[in-house]
Write a structure and sequence with these properties.
167 residues; 7 helices; globular
Amino acid sequence: MSKIFFLFILLFSSQAYGAGILETEKLVEQVDSIRKALVTSVVQKPDEELFNQVCKPVGMNIKKIYDEKKIKIRQASHKPRNPKNKADKNELLSIKMFSERNDINSVWLKIDGKRHYFKRITVQKNCLACHGEKSKRPSFVKGKYLADKAFDFKVGDIRGVYHVIVE
């Protein structure tokens, strides 16, 4: 990635704080903290019940934020399990940047006149129970997500991003 692009990111990020910006960052951090806390509870081979206790609450929290504050947080990945979460070109750009720069955890960008916030989703050890080796995925995942690409991750890999557009 070019030095000019990173300079743009740093300059824009430092000037991006305005109405709703800090709230957006806090809400996304809240969602990610819930994800990190819940995934630590994975100590056994996951089944659909454990999936409902670990992954589902994150999505429910994102929905609650939208219902209450009209802030839409999208989870996107370059290797989606659910095709609805396939990263678009801007999300792919942020995933590439996060993959190349471990020192950057989030960034604000101005794209087509709108402010976009991206925050990395990083694979933790317990994530590998469902996102590790392809052959070791739980049977409910294999049966439910036939086009699954969300496997063969390692600890510390970029799983995807949270993406918010602030208008």
